[in-house]
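Reopening this one. Same input as before:
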Amino acid sequence: MGILNITPDSFSDGGQFFEPSHAVDHAFEMIREGADILDIGGESSRPGAKPVSSDTELSRILPVVKMIRERSTVPISIDTTKADVAKACLGAGADMINDVSGLRDSGKEMAEAAHSFGAGLILMHRRGTPETMQSCADYQDVVGETVEELRASIQLALDYGIKHDRLAIDPGLGFAKDTRHNLEVLNRLEAFHRLGYPVLLGPSRKSFIGEITGKAVEDRDFGTAAVVAVAVLKGVQILRVHNVAAMRDVIQTTLKICGDRYVRTL
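Same output, byte for byte:
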């Protein structure tokens, strides 16, 4: 899954693809590099980010969704917590919703949008909002509590009519989690597989990699590659990354060395 942030303030690529033509060019660059899914967002969810209105979010992403869909059938995911944004983008040809609030923000309306279009729905774990989430990183057992909170999001989705086979889950690396929490999640990914849904992981260039390596955000691809390799070995089905070409090499090489029969056994 290739990341396409159409924002002025995302932590890694904010402002780089703010113009629709630049965003579309980058989308097709990622497709050429091997992206199986494009994840398009118009509101930063980095720690401390300020919210934007639905109109602002749609003005950023809807033209890009339309232009990509005119030229490609690549699956498009919309990274949003707003049901009206998701519905408009699904109507323009997007295929799935990546809800980093795990249905806690828009709830029934978001589920109804996904259900009405037969769209996929990714449920991520997060506590609080981007402005408050790091103050919510208080756990006795980060994996156990994250699993239970994701289980609650899954049940909400099912109660609102979303089919089992339209759901995926994301433990939410870096969202209401510090470095120690993120490492614990990575070490115990099997707990998330036991929920019975495809697992998405978004480690790309995140601050915990910076804390480990001492590298600035633009120099974290090698650290990201290490996390991606571990994730592949632990059976993660979707990797959300900035550098598609490099991480596709990591995925393919890890699988070639270890073979599918070893995946999810480590």
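So the earlier flakiness isn't reproducible anymore. For the record, The chain has a mean pLDDT of 92.
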